[in-house]
Design goal:
Number of helices: 10
Bound molecules: adenosine-5'-diphosphate, magnesium ion
Strand content: 15-25%
Order of helices and strands: HEEEHEEHEHHEHEEHEEEEHEEHH
CATH architecture of the largest domain: 3-Layer(aba) Sandwich
Largest sheet: 5 strands, antiparallel
Number of strands: 15
Shape: globular
CATH class of the largest domain: Alpha Beta
Structural class: alpha+beta
Radius of gyration: 22 Å
Low-confidence stretches: none
Helix content: 25-40%
Length: about 325
């Protein structure tokens, strides 16, 4: 995950999950990608182990401030579960470290699933020929192609980086303001060092000014939803871009969308994700460090993290039982 001091305790979903683990009496250590290390073919992490306390504050802010850690180099395969909570862009080498322990530890989300779904291409290639749930989307580096799509396209379109998060770089293009398009495309696509970026050009979904819906999906099923309404001065609904949070009950169409994508998410090992829906259309699947838990907790007076940790405990138990069973059967064979 990101470093402890970078957490804003009031609205950090990772902290809410950590708090729930610790409250249940589990031991816990945190680390950042830069702290992964191989020693004699074994993957370790320079970790910060949280000191156990008799009394754990119910308030996330004081839990965050009062937490104490000691440093220890620990083997990854010794943990029951590893939860990945780093923000994009994805560090591919970090995943290779974790690959070496994926048969020993329950990792959420699954590493191959994250590889597949860590950017917005995951939804762009979702099978939906008639654009029933995915807005018409183009992903490319080809500027001439982008310009021709904009020229022949609708009045409003959305341009965004393939790898962004938190609403950063998401802009609304309007046909009557096309004078800056060359400069914009140069800025989004070309880097100073000669490398280049893919961009997404997407149909503007009507109704986006009313906000979007964030749904947290656990093991293929929705466990919480909220509406994010953009502030007066922005077209984006992200809370980090000034959006406000309200209660939201899923509409029939949104439930249907969840039913359509749920099985694929589970198949890809994407057990805990946050999806963004605008007007019944799927805009994004957040698989790296989905957020929203604390906001949902506030508007619904609930603790969404309890469901997440229940699920993790079940998964770990399943894995431990399978190990035990195999050990017993193996003994039987050995003694034959
Ligand atoms: N196709 C679109 N039509 C209308 N609004 C959009 C569209 N795509 C993105 N937005 C607005 O921008 C916000 C951020 O876009 P999103 O694709 O979720 O990227 P990020 O990863 O930065 O959150 C959305 O929540 C929405 O308010
Ligand atoms: Mg989003």
């Amino acid at each position: 995950m990101y470093p402890w001091h970078e957490i804003s305790p009031e609205n950090d979903s990772t902290l809410a999950m950590i708090h729930e683990f610790v409250k249940r009496g589990h031991g816990l250590a945190i680390t950042t990608p830069a702290n992964l290390t191989i020693r004699d073919s074994v993957a370790f992490a320079f970790s910060r182990v949280m000191k156990r306390k008799d009394k754990i504050s119910n308030n996330l802010k004081s839990f965050h401030t009062k937490a104490e850690f000691y440093d220890e180099m620990l083997p990854l395969a010794g943990f029951d579960v590893i939860i990945l909570r780093s923000n994009p862009p994805l560090d591919m080498i970090m995943l290779n470290f974790l690959d070496s322990v994926k048969d020993d530890v329950f990792i959420m989300n699954d590493l191959d699933g994250i590889r597949r779904a860590n950017n917005k291409l995951y939804t762009a290639v979702f099978e939906d020929e008639n654009n029933e749930i995915i807005p018409r989307t183009h992903v490319t580096k080809n500027k001439e192609y982008l310009k021709s799509v904009i020229k022949d396209g609708p009045d409003k379109m959305i341009l965004k980086p393939l790898n962004g998060f938190g609403g950063s770089g998401v802009i609304l293009l309007e046909k009557r303001a096309m004078k800056s398009i060359n400069s914009l495309l140069d800025f989004y696509i070309d880097n100073a060092d000669g490398t280049s970026n893919y961009v997404i050009l997407q149909e503007y979904i009507e109704g986006a000014d009313q906000g979007d819906v964030r749904v947290l999906i656990l093991n293929g099923k929705p466990i919480g939803a909220m509406r994010r309404v953009p502030g007066e001065e922005d077209h984006r609904s992200n809370v980090s871009a000034g959006g406000r949070v309200e209660k939201h009950s899923l509409t029939k169409q949104e439930k249907e969308l969840c039913r359509r994508i749920g099985p694929k998410l589970v198949k890809d090992g994407l057990y805990f994700v946050g999806i963004d829906i605008i007007n019944g259309m799927l805009v994004e699947v957040n698989v790296m460090s989905p957020g929203g838990i604390t906001y949902m907790n506030t508007v619904y007076k609930t603790k969404v993290q309890e469901k997440v940790i229940d699920f993790v405990e079940d998964k770990v138990l399943e894995m431990v039982n399978a190990f035990e069973r195999r050990k017993k059967l193996r003994k039987h064979v050995d003694e034959a």
